[in-house]
Design brief:
single chain; 190 residues; alpha/beta
């Protein structure tokens, strides 16, 4: 992936937060691969964007019963995804810095309910590298929306994970390659 223009590239790290990452098996290896990708992109002069899902009380109140988020909007389940919960913080094993782009969302995709597009365009970003949990959630939604917004999209397959490994495989091997480039973290630095 040496053809990347690092000054116009951002690695989006999506939903790598305690409440989500710690539910997966072998989180350590996933975090190690992501740490490698973050370090690689930083060393080349690229930007890092952190996207997390977290809700304020008014956000929970606005969730309709038909929403994918409806189960966590129930009063007895709100604490885990509340904006003030440590479980919604970016995973502490990751190197988040003040100069990074940082957005909070209340829907599945990284662009919906955020100013992410505006912030990326402020930095003349045209290429997005995507890493996220889950592949069938935030990654799928963000791939589609990023393509609609005319970004060049690359998915880091081994820096994405899904509770359903078979679904992850179908998305990264069959669906995403139809409009995005799919590589591993190791291939990113080659």
């Amino acid at each position: 992936m040496s053809a990347l223009d690092p000054t116009r590239t951002a690695l989006l790290v999506m939903d790598y937060q305690v409440a989500i990452a710690d539910q997966l098996p072998d989180t350590g290896a996933l975090l190690d691969r992501l740490t490698t990708a973050v370090s690689d992109i930083r060393s080349r002069g690229g930007r890092i964007g952190w996207v997390r899902v977290a809700f304020e009380d008014s956000d929970f109140d606005a969730i309709p019963p038909s929403s994918v988020w409806a189960p966590i909007a129930e009063p007895q389940r709100r604490a885990r995804f509340h904006i003030d919960s440590p479980a919604t913080a970016v995973h502490p094993a990751l190197d988040r810095r003040p100069e990074d782009i940082d957005v909070r969302k209340t829907r599945v995709g990284a662009f919906t309910t955020t100013d992410l597009d505006h912030r990326l365009r402020e930095h003349d970003i045209t290429t997005l590298l995507l890493a996220g949990i889950s592949t069938s959630g935030v990654v799928l939604s963000t791939v589609r929306e990023a393509m609609d917004r005319d970004y060049r999209v690359t998915v880091l397959a081994d820096a994405c994970a899904d509770p359903d490994p078979d679904l992850h495989a179908v998305l990264t091997r069959t669906v995403f390659p139809r409009g995005a480039t799919v590589v591993t973290v190791g291939e990113l630095s080659s």
